[in-house]
Specification:
This protein has 11 helices and 13 strands. It is α/β, with parallel strands linked by helices. Strand 12 and strand 13 form a beta hairpin.
Length: about 325
């Protein structure tokens, strides 16, 4: 498989073929002839997973775990279809996600509310339920074995309440889903990677995200494996950037004075300015226009998520008034 990346520690990555190239990575962990798949992409990603396994000489029966960092469909949309092709695998997912994997009806409704039903189907196809007896609740601290390799679950809310990150005892690294932000390879400059927080709808919680990032950094990881897009190192620097940008994005949202569409437009404009300033600060390789185009969908979703967060704060204040 030509786009398979071998990180030389039993961890492999490849493009899920979701959206554009190098948007979403799927990771494989291989130990003692057994394998785990971390995040699944969409239904269209399933043939790529099977091809990657075949290129490593891993039979479908040798896959023990399919691990979802969370149940947003760019990470989990292909889980049901993939489980049909991996007869011995168990699905590991946050306890809040278990019922949605067994019955994806509400998950589909939530996704359709964000993208529209037609666009959601174009992106993800028909969601396939996973038999309940094949699902394992990924409770905080749970350790699962992959051959002689231990994988430990960390409950990491902030991006979503149903988010986990997974500590790999051999690589001494985390699979972070979206908790450690987005790092697009197009922004790499002289081999130096960068990260941007993701505050997408509907469960962004800045205090929880800060705490989750610090909890992972306390393990002194050698690397983070992000779904968007794969391995980054220099994690202390990147963690500091995430903390700073989370606070900056929250400040942009709190400064917005409009309501409804007007507020959204104001937040979006503020986030675009933050990225212009970040591009100059970090000397990103892309031009300003190309940077904003690359991040356009993420900035739109971030603005939506910040708006939902503001509304949730107001709802709490109203209850406590």
């Amino acid at each position: 498989m030509k786009n398979l990346i071998d990180y030389q520690d039993g961890v492999f990555a490849f493009d899920s073929a979701y959206g554009r190239p190098q948007l979403c990575a799927i990771h494989l962990v291989v130990q003692d002839g057994r394998a785990a798949v971390v995040d699944t992409g969409s239904n269209a990603s399933v043939p790529h997973v099977l091809a990657a396994l075949a290129s490593l000489g891993i039979a479908p029966e040798a896959v023990d775990w399919v691990i979802l960092t969370h149940i947003h469909l760019d990470h989990a949309g292909g889980a049901g279809s993939l489980m049909c092709a991996l007869p011995r695998a168990k699905l590991l997912v946050h306890p809040r996600g278990v019922r949605h994997m067994a019955d994806p009806t509400r998950l589909w409704e939530g996704t359709s509310a964000v993208y529209g039903a037609e666009r959601a189907f174009e992106l993800y196809g028909q969601l396939v339920p996973v038999p309940a007896e094949r699902i394992v609740a990924a409770t905080d601290g749970l350790e699962v074995q992959l051959g002689s390799r231990m994988l430990r679950v960390f409950d990491t809310p902030g991006h979503a309440r149903h988010h986990i990150c997974v500590w790999d005892s051999v690589a001494r690294a985390f699979f972070t889903g979206d908790t450690f932000g987005l790092s697009y390879r197009e922004l790499d400059t002289d081999g130096r990677a960068f990260v941007v927080p993701t505050t997408t709808p509907t469960q962004f919680d800045p205090a929880a995200m800060h705490a989750s990032i610090d909890r992972m950094l306390a393990m002194s990881p050698t690397a983070m494996y992000l779904t968007h897009f794969s391995r980054v190192t220099d994690v202390e620097r990147l963690g500091a950037d995430l903390h700073r940008l989370i606070d900056t994005m929250v400040a942009v949202a709190q400064a917005a004075r409009g309501e409804g569409v007007a507020r959204h437009v104001e937040i979006l404009a503020g986030l675009e300015q933050v990225m212009r300033e970040e591009a100059a600060r970090q000397k990103w390789a892309l031009s300003e226009d190309d940077t904003l185009e690359l991040l356009r969908m993420d900035l739109e979703l971030n603005a939506q998520g910040l708006g939902v967060w503001l509304d949730s704060l107001r709802a709490v204040e109203a209850v406590n008034a």
